[in-house]
Amino acid sequence: MRKSVGIFLGIIFFPFLIKANVAQFSHQLLFGHTNRVLALAYSPDGKLIASAGDDQKIRVWSVDQNISVVTLNGHQSKIIDLVFYGNNRLISASEDKSIRIWDIAQGSELDRFVLRSGRLTSIDFNQKNNFLVSGSSDGIVRLWDLKTKDLLAAFNQHQGIVWSVAFSPSGTHIASGSEDKTVHFWEVETKTLVSTFTGHNNRVWEVLFNFDGSRIISADWDGVVFLWSTDQSEPNNPLKTYDRPVLSMAYSDSNSNSTLALGLASSPTDETIKLWNLSSRQEIQSFDSNSRHAIAFSPDKASMITAGSIDGTISIWQSAIEKPKLLLPGEKALINTSEVDFSWEAIRGAAYYELEVSTNPDFNQPYAKVSSNEQLTAQIGENFFSNFSNQFVLPLAATYWWRARSGTFGQTSSWSQHKSFSTLYSPPSKCIVRVAPRNRRIDLTDEFLVSVWIESVRNLVGFQFDLKWTNPNCISFVTTTRFNEILPRGSGIKRLPKEVAKDPFFQLDQKNGLYKNIVATKQGEAGVDGSGILLSVLFRAIEVGSCQVQLENLILLDSSQNEIECEIYKANVSVENPARPWDVNNDKVVNIFDLSLVARYFGLPIPLDLEINPDINGDGMVNIFDFTFVAAHFGEVYEKNSLFAPSLISESLCQDSLLPNYPNPFNPDTWIPFQLSKRTDLTIQIHGSNGALIREFNLGVLMAGQYTDQRKAVYWDGRNSLGERVPSGIYFYSILTQDFQQTRKMIVIK
After folding, report:
1. One domain for residues 353 and 390
2. Strand arrangement, sheet containing 376-380
3. How far is CA 392 from CA 137, 368, 617, in A?
4. Could you tell me if residue 692 is inside a domain?
5. Domain boundary at 187, 219, 250, which?
6. Mean pLDDT across the chain, nearest whole number?
7. What is the DSSP string of 133-145?
8. Which region among 209-218, 366-375, 528-537, 564-573 has the lowest average model confidence (pLDDT)?
9. Is residue 610 part of a domain?
10. pLDDT exceeds cutoff 60 at 692
11. Are 349 and 17 contacting, i.e. CB atoms less than 8 angstroms apart?
């Protein structure tokens, strides 16, 4: 396979996600090849590396000793792909039209397959069924049985060279990428084409599957990387477009977090190796300057290997989990504020941090143990205003020790050195007004509350402020949920005496992220002492990014119409793509069924073909930490992704129907739901009011059922086939099957 697979069953997570820069990697070079290295593979046990390329030689290297242990000769042309067949056998593919099986220990050839037509371009092997798949220049995808040495199938639907092929982890499906700019998705058992994915504008050079086969990742010669949902449950959007070809790809995954490595052609201005976190769809690392025709992850998740395109050297980068450096509170610090901030130097790419707080320096009796991907805050005293996930309560006047460690879903670092502090708190002389929670991570499309709190105020009779959010493209105001719970019922809403009455009360400026003139006054002469809510607002996360929510023009008045001094604190909101591994059965609710699944596999190895993942934190075992993750989110419901209420009608009773898109009118995107009465080939078309074809979605063969939620409905981003935003106006969308057609109207507004 052109992707130079380091993808083996059981590959989990790539731990150098947590590295901040390339200097944190140890770098080694292997010398031996005299020309380009085009293929790399790790043995399943991670002890051997095989490499090959233009010089027609296969070299096998010892990972521990970094030396070549055997050289295999026999191919008459350049070798384009390698895969291991167990730990001691190797399969190679060459442009001499031969696929050869080698005994590494003996250094000899065991068997070979020779094509009658076309030259080989890519191979992949699946250990579960002992099937081999190959791609070739004649446009044919061939399926082989290595046990019987039979050619099981020859798929010839591509209209050009097949540059890359890949098995799904279960071995039940095949993906292929071609010169014809398409990605095909095949079913092995029935030997049929399930789906064809279109969207690339140049040859598809690399394809591979994610850990459960639910997505195909493809890259083309223009540098465009796509993520395809194999069951059409998610939008098929480009991950990234680079200005040069993607020469190689490798993938490592831990169910809820995944890492994609891209090897690019060299550039005078940019680095060639790109690491992506596919869960957040963010580039997390970029390094190296040479073109990389082969790239692979090690099975033990501890290293990455790449090959140079000119001089034949092989580069190995290794990484280790770093422990965080503790910042505040300092050694023997005396905390005399209402809150204690536990902070550390962030480790780039760390999936989470573990914090342990103890009443003794040996940590044999931890007071609190918290896991979070955010910095944490402890409230001193029992009168805590809220119970946010990144905050907890510490008793007053006690001495504590604390430490932290970073982790990925594959492993954790060692504990950091500990620090100590003591708590001592008395009410402040100034009142505090804060936007809470101070640090918050939000999933994309989530709705969440932001509250304005006032603490320890004396003689309050009125207030006025504006609420400002700095990135209106990131979050959007929905509604006010609570207002003025600090002042007694019956308090009037009128302008404070110091203000000029010219603007309306509670004025919303959504475009600029401003909620203006939030005003309340108390009726009567005596002021109010204490703490309470000034305002609670419901926001919606609409775009991945970061945002600050803060107060402007704040005025607090006492009964003598004097301003009350206060300290003001803002909030930080981070919007990320959702990752909910604690919803084990993916039914959009965390409940007893999720706990039961964790209990079922407690202490047991997880079958590789298991559709659910009870190993929540991805540490390779199901243990008490996984119970903790589920318990922490117990009762959460994720119904916001549903466009319609769940139907009580059996899927077998569905009628062919094109349903209203949601939302409509819309800007910038919408979902097109439908339902099918039987298995059929399906296409969705979008036309302009003049009848011109704007966009076409060829969904391939779909099963009967309801495609009515955001996981299954067709997603349209409001762009035409060229990637351009369409103008405002009326558009028509149609469903086309062999036996059914229907058209509806939609409206785009700007």
Report:
1. yes
2. 339-342, 376-380, 391-394
3. 62, 9, 22
4. yes
5. 250
6. 80
7. EEEETTS-EEEEE
8. 366-375
9. yes
10. yes
11. yes
pLDDT for res 60: 95
Cα gap 52→61, rounded to integer Å: 11
Q: Residue 650 is part of a domain; what is its CATH number?
A: 2.60.40.4070
List, for residues 455-478, the tens digit of each pLDDT value.
778 888 889 999 999 999 999 998
The larger pLDDT score, comparing residue 175 to residue 604, is at 175
Cβ atoms of 294 and 38 within 8 Å: the answer is yes
pLDDT (0 to 100) of residue 444: 76
Domain that holds residue 737: 642-748
Cβ atoms of 82 and 58 within 8 Å: the answer is yes
**What pLDDT score was predicted for residue 53?**
93
Question: Residue 71 region, left (φ>0) first, then alpha (ψ -120 to 50), else beta?
Answer: beta
Asked if residue 312 has pLDDT above 60, the reply is: yes
Nearest Cα to 15, choosing from 414, 297, 371, 325?
Answer: 297
Same domain, 44 and 173: yes
Judged by phi (left if over 0) then psi (alpha if -120 to 50, else beta), residue 15 lies in alpha
The reply to whether 260 falls in a domain is: no
Same structural domain, 602 and 561: no
Q: In total, how many domains does the chain have?
A: 5
**Cα–Cα dist 743/70, whole Å:** 64
Maximum C-alpha span of the chain: 98
42 and 164 both lie in a single domain: yes
Q: What is the structure's pLDDT at 381?
A: 62
Check whether residue 353 and residue 469 sit in a common domain.
Answer: no
**In angstroms, what CA-CA distances link 743 with 232, 686, 715, 728?**
20, 9, 17, 19
Rg (Cα) of the chain, in Å, rounded?
30
Same domain, 219 and 86: yes
pLDDT at 686 over 60: yes
731 and 600 belong to one structural domain = no
Long-range contacts, 361-367 (Cβ 8 Å, 24+):
361/401, 361/418, 361/420, 363/401, 363/403, 363/418, 367/394, 367/400
Same domain, yes or no, for 683 and 730?
yes
Six-digit token pair at 695?
């966009």
Distance from CA of residue 499 to its chain's centroid?
48
In this prediction the pTM is 0.48
Which residue matches tokens 């680079």?
242
